[in-house]
Amino acid sequence: MSSQLFTSKHNTLARLTLLLFVAGAAGFLGFMDMLHRSPYVRYTKVRREQPIPFSHKHHTSLGIDCRYCHTSVETSSFANIPPTQTCMNCHNVMWNDSPMLEKVRESYANDESIEWTRVHDLPDFVYFNHSIHVANGIGCSTCHGRVDQMPLMWREKPLFMKWCLECHRDPSQFVRPDDKIFDMAFDPKSQSQEERDALVESYGIDTSNQRLTNCSICHR
Ligand code: HEC
Ligand code: HEC
Ligand code: HEC
Ligand code: HEC
Ligand code: HEC
User: Fold this and answer.
1) Which residue CA neighbors atom 10 of ligand 5 most closely?
2) Neighbours of 198 (CB within 10 A)
3) 5-58 pLDDT, tens digit each
4) Burial class for 112, CB neighbours closer than 10 Å (0-12, 13-18, 19+)
5) pLDDT of residue 43
6) Which of 56, 59, 81 should be mutated for ligand 2, with most atoms under 8 A from CB?
7) In the chain, how long is the greatest CA-to-CA distance?
8) What gap in Å lies between CA 181 and CA 13, rounded to an integer?
9) Which of 47, 115, 168, 169 is deepest in the core (most CB within 10 A)?
10) Does 200 sit in the ligand 4 pocket, CB within 6 Å?
11) Other beta carbons within 10 Å of 186
12) Percentage with pLDDT > 70 across the chain
């Protein structure tokens, strides 16, 4: 009896439905993967809302150096975000009644840090270190873009693994002299390959045996 219930026609239909379902699921996963890797989901080149509309463009045009606020970028793996005290060095006297700075004054008065939205955030299983890059001739703008032109901060690069590897395979494409690290307008490609090779040599960047693309360099 039961075999009569499922005629061969039904069987074909069932198989077809199953096939479509599987293909659909694979397609859906593929789509989700694409989405995960797409620049949009990574907020690449998307201005991020911040609790206070802090403008890098505005502040760097005043001639304030990156290191005035990001004091640990040359000495530590982490580039710090400045405490409210740093803002108040100027804003207790300058523009001290601006409504845009209300939250800065509040934070200072209540001794509570400002909750900035993180713009760059690598997964925990990746090790990154600022001081090593800065000491080896890689400028801020190579990884962060023209920060001096950003009214609100955005992420210039999606920070995929292949992006790290592209440079680790051949850092000579991106090195610059020591005195240009904080120069946002400097373009490493304006130097000849010979000049860049000489820089790689003088920094002592070691690319032997594909050392810099070894998994354990970044996944420790
Ligand atoms: C007056 C202080 C100040 C100066 C000067 C300054 N910054 Fe910042 N920076 C901040 C603050 C505050 C934030 C957090 C809010 C934001 O993302 O805009 C920040 C965030 C950043 C971020 C993103 C951090 C994240 O969340 O991933 C980068 C990258 C950055 N700054 C680079 C630079 C560079 C490069 C320079 C020099 C050209 C510079 N900054 C100069 C205060 C400063
Ligand atoms: C070295 C001095 C200095 C420091 C440090 C500084 N600022 Fe400013 N900031 C200024 C000046 C000057 C202006 C006004 C510039 C103009 O409009 O011409 C300004 C403007 C602003 C404005 C716009 C205010 C308005 O009403 O238009 C905001 C918001 C702001 N700053 C936030 C911050 C925050 C947040 C910090 C700390 C991370 C900070 N600033 C650190 C000097 C400074
Ligand atoms: C080789 C690429 C590279 C260079 C060069 C670089 N950064 Fe970054 N920066 C990153 C990455 C990647 C992150 C995210 C780190 C994380 O999530 O752990 C980051 C994060 C930051 C942050 C957020 C705090 C942190 O450490 O996570 C600030 C601020 C920052 N960078 C400022 C700077 C400044 C200023 C310079 C120039 C002196 C600079 N960076 C040079 C790649 C770079
Ligand atoms: C534009 C070039 C460039 C980019 C992009 C870059 N790096 Fe590097 N990285 C270097 C250079 C140059 C060195 C120094 C190599 C040396 O000292 O021999 C280095 C060194 C390192 C080191 C230390 C290696 C050691 O000797 O222990 C780590 C960890 C690292 N990078 C992680 C990363 C990660 C993670 C990313 C991506 C988020 C990244 N880097 C992106 C150029 C780059
Ligand atoms: C120069 C630094 C660097 C090196 C070397 C490196 N990785 Fe990664 N890896 C990263 C970063 C950064 C991410 C995070 C990428 C992201 O968020 O999309 C990552 C992510 C991954 C992931 C998670 C899946 C993905 O693609 O996001 C795997 C798996 C992985 N790496 C394996 C490896 C293996 C295996 C090697 C050695 C052949 C290696 N990595 C070498 C930086 C590196």
Assistant:
1) 161
2) 14
3) 555 666 665 665 655 666 666 665 555 566 566 665 677 888 889 999 999 999
4) exposed
5) 77
6) 59
7) 91
8) 65
9) 168
10) no
11) 16
12) 81
